């Protein structure tokens, strides 16, 4: 057999049937469901009298809509409440396992899946959410789907898809101090652009990737979609197996050993073909952030905002100017020192315990700058409990951060956590689109450590000055 | 899903790259449990000013483009969030065809699932079609899916590619769950074989 990539192997092992036009009926191992993209799918099943084929391969959580403040109070926004109650009715009717709002296991779907051992290497995983790519860190083929496809998976446990192209992003070397997985990924997106991965699955490789812990790999794969890729992947290795061992829904005992033996066969073969290879040197990557309203507008924190006058394409020049106007920035200005109003540390990109530790190491012994609102939103109830056990909550609270309940929070402006027009936010989330964090809100994407640095200095800051 | 065969309608030009699905329909409008009714908030931040009044500079607020059925943009249309609310919002507004030099994968897929035809054409061709669109009410484009051509106001034709299976589903207005369930035997066989080969794959059962 010709050498195959990790993607090829997972793909091949899940093809139920290939249709005459090369579309595969692809088997799905795990279907993650949340309240926003599922109601119309459940309704579709009901209207057509279809059953949900495998409730025992499905898990539901509430995350997008939920308030991250006091959970003992009823949900104030009627539409949010309705969406959550609709999910609760649906999971009951169709027998879907569900972590309700008050469960310790509740959290952001892409934090909960790996944390519970529900997402495992070699699997196919889908969810009606583009950041499903996160689970690629496990060495699983994981991608976001629309609601029609959610219904398709519910009814058939399969999806119709043509194979993606293979792309490899190699980062060799060792990153310097203050440089995290978030900086690596933003640097990659800045390099290849938001459409750089379109039609491809990106496999991340190289020593700088292998050196990352699972949280870092999840950050990387999470933002593959921001590079336009269908999915991101990291080959499962000892770091992966140790992470999976003992998780609540992971195989146990002999079954675990059997699983590991299989997972070890998944790494790409020597000489496997990639349609595109991109290489970066870890030493060249510095702490970075975005200046504009597209995740590809990445500059080093030591850099300057670009000047549209230097852009030759007129449509692009206009768009750059529009971004500057929206962001309230001047062409050519130094980005460091720009004052921020809000700091958001959370989201499926950066809300795991490792992210909170990184933020806490900067926050410790310092104070949130006057006039800045700084929020910490753990990715799940489990992350929150772990952080409290380690005393991180106290570090944050003493520094003047808010310590909140798990949810998507200010990543997407669907719940009460939103920016007001004109507010500037240093955010560990994944998208800086216009209005993403609230109408008129201005988002700078950066790492948890950089976000904490912004909180304590009151402006966008090179975290290396605080290490 | 409505069939898509031959569409003749007004086209609107939106000459921007990377129009994301947050822009097509912001998250605060995703709280619906229905597919319909999102058209009024399509492109909300571009269409309305802060006080809620219409932004007269935005193309879809201008005549004849209020009735546009075809939308032409630049690269990477529909990037970002997987929300199918984006094609639902376009459809509810009246858009049945989107033309761009490239699309984000999930949005491209979601369009087909809702009877919207996404057409990929090189940027210079999109620029020509945008010029046609700017000629106003007399400048209708015809999208002939059976023949796979866009017919311009001057009668010239631009051919386009479309996946044969997706074309068939659009022409017949079929959803693909029924199609897939015709292969249910194969799915069952796959499940049985895998349960034997990889018995360690856990089932999700809550206590």
Percent range of helical residues of chain A: 25-40%
Helix content of chain B: 25-40%
Number of helices of chain A: 15
Please write the CATH class name of chain B: Alpha Beta
User: How large, in whole angstroms, is the Cα Rg of chain A?
Assistant: 21 Å
What can be said about this structure in brief?
Chain A: Residues 8-458 form the Aconitase/3-isopropylmalate dehydratase large subunit alpha/beta/alpha domain. The complex is a heterodimer of chains A (467) and B (207). Chain A has helices at residues 6-12, 39-48, 78-94, 109-115, 147-156, 181-192, 207-210, 214-222, 238-244, 253-263, 314-327, 353-363, 381-389, 392-399, 448-457; strands at residues 15-18, 24-27, 30-33, 58-61, 98-99, 124-127, 141-144, 158-161, 165-172, 200-205, 231-233, 276-281, 288-290, 298-300, 342-345, 373-376, 402-403, 424-427, 442-445.
Features:
heterodimer; A: 467 residues; alpha/beta; Aconitase, domain 3; Aconitase, Domain 2; five-stranded parallel sheet; B: 207 residues; Aconitase, domain 4; seven-stranded mixed sheet; 7 strands; Aconitase_4Fe-4S_BS (chain A); lyase (chain A); leucine biosynthesis (chain A)
What does this structure look like?
- The complex is a heterodimer of chains A (467) and B (207).
- Chain A is an alpha/beta fold and 467 residues long.
- Chain A folds into three domains: 6-163 and 246-257, Aconitase, domain 3; 165-236 and 268-284, Aconitase, Domain 2 (3-Layer(aba) Sandwich); 288-465, 2-Layer Sandwich (Aconitase, domain 3), CATH 3.30.499.
- Chain A has helices at 6-12, 39-48, 78-94, 109-115, 147-156, 181-192, 207-210, 214-222, 238-244, 253-263, 314-327, 353-363, 381-389, 392-399, 448-457; strands at residues 15-18, 24-27, 30-33, 58-61, 98-99, 124-127, 141-144, 158-161, 165-172, 200-205, 231-233, 276-281, 288-290, 298-300, 342-345, 373-376, 402-403, 424-427, 442-445.
- A five-stranded parallel sheet of chain A has the order 5-4-3-6-7. Chain A has a five-stranded parallel sheet with strand order 17-16-15-18-19. Chain A has a four-stranded parallel sheet with strand order 11-10-9-12.
- In chain A, strand 1 and strand 2 (24-27) form a beta hairpin.
- The model of chain A has no long low-confidence stretch (mean pLDDT 97).
- Chain B has helices spanning 21-24, 44-47, 85-93, 105-113, 123-133, 164-172, 176-181, 184-197; strands spanning 6-14, 70-73, 97-100, 117-120, 140-144, 149-151, 157-159.
- The termini of chain B are far apart.
- The longest helix of chain B is centred in the C-terminal third of the chain and has 14 residues, at 184-197.
- Chain B contains eight helices and seven strands, in the order βααβαβαβαβββααα.
- In chain B, strands 4-3-2-1-5-6-7 form a seven-stranded mixed sheet.
- In chain B, a hairpin with a 5-residue loop joins strand 6 and strand 7.
- Chain B has 207 residues and is α/β, with parallel strands linked by helices.
- Chain B has one domain (6-174): Aconitase, domain 4 (Alpha-Beta Barrel).
- Chains A and B meet through helix 2, helix 3, helix 5, helix 10 and helix 11 of A and helix 4, helix 7 and helix 8 of B.
């Amino acid at each position: 057999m010709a050498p195959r990539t990790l993607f090829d192997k997972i793909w091949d092992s899940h093809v139920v049937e290939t249709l005459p036009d090369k579309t595969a009926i692809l088997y799905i191992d795990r279907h993650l469901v949340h309240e926003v993209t599922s109601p119309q799918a459940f309704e579709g099943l009901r209207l057509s009298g279809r059953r949900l084929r495998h409730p025992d391969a499905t898990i539901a959580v509430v995350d997008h809509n939920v308030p991250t403040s006091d959970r003992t109070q009823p949900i104030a926004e009627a539409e949010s409440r309705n969406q959550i109650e609709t999910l609760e009715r649906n999971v009951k009717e169709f027998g879907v396992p569900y972590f309700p709002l008050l469960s310790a296991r509740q959290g952001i779907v892409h934090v909960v899946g790996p944390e519970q051992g529900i997402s495992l290497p070699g699997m196919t995983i889908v969810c009606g959410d583009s950041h499903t790519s996160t689970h690629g860190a496990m060495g699983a083929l994981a991608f976001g789907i629309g609601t029609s496809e959610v219904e398709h998976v519910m009814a058939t446990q399969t999806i119709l898809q043509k194979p993606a192209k293979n792309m490899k992003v190699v980062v060799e070397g060792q990153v310097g101090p203050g440089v995290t997985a978030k900086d690596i990924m933003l640097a990659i997106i800045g390099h290849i652009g938001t459409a750089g991965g379109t039609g491809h699955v990106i496999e991340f490789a190289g020593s700088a990737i292998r050196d990352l812990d699972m949280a870092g790999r999840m950050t990387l794969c999470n933002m593959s979609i921001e590079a336009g890729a269908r999915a991101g992947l990291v080959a499962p290795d000892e770091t992966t197996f140790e992470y999976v061992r003992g998780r609540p829904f992971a195989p146990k005992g002999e079954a675990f050993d059997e699983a590991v033996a299989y997972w070890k066969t998944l790494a790409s073969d020597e000489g496997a073909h990639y349609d595109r290879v991109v290489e970066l040197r870890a030493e060249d990557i510095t702490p970075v952030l975005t200046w504009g309203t597209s995740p590809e507008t990445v500059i080093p924190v030591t850099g300057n905002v670009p000047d549209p006058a230097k852009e030759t394409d007129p449509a692009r020049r206009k768009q750059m100017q529009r971004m500057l106007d929206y962001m309230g920035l001047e062409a050519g200005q130094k980005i460091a020192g720009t004052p921020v109003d809000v700091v958001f540390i959370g989201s499926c990109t950066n809300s795991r315990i490792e992210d909170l530790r990184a933020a806490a190491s900067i926050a410790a012994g310092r104070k949130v700058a006057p006039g800045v609102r700084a929020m910490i939103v753990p990715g799940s109830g489990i992350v929150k409990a772990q952080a409290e056990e380690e005393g991180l909550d106290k570090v944050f609270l003493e520094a003047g951060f808010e310590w909140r309940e798990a949810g998507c929070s200010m990543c997407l402006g669907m719940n009460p956590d939103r920016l007001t027009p004109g507010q500037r936010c240093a955010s560990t989330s994944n998208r800086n689109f216009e209005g993403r964090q609230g109408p008129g809100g201005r988002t700078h994407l950066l790492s948890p450590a950089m976000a904490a640095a912004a909180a304590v200095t009151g402006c966008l800051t090179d975290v290396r000055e605080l290490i | 899903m409505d069939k898509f065969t031959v569409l003749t309608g007004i086209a609107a030009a939106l000459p921007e790259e990377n129009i994301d699905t947050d822009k097509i329909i912001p998250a605060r409008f995703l709280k619906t449990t229905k597919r319909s009714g999102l058209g009024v908030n399509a492109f909300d931040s571009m269409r309305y000013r802060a006080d809620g009044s219409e932004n007269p500079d935005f193309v879809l607020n201008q005549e004849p483009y209020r009735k546009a059925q075809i939308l032409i943009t630049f690269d990477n249309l529909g990037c970002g969030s997987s929300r199918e609310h984006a094609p639902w919002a376009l459809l509810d507004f009246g858009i049945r065809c989107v033309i761009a030099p490239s699309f984000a994968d999930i949005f491209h897929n979601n369009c087909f699932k809702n009877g919207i035809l996404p057409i990929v054409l090189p940027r210079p061709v999109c620029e020509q079609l945008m010029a046609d669109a700017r000629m106003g009410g007399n400048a209708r484009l015809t999208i002939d899916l059976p023949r796979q051509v866009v017919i311009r106001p001057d009668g010239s034709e631009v051919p386009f590619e479309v996946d044969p299976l997706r074309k068939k589903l659009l022409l017949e207005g079929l959803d693909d769950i029924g199609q897939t369930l015709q292969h249910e035997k194969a799915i069952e066989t796959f499940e049985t074989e895998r349960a034997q080969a990889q018995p360690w794959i856990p089932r999700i059962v809550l206590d």
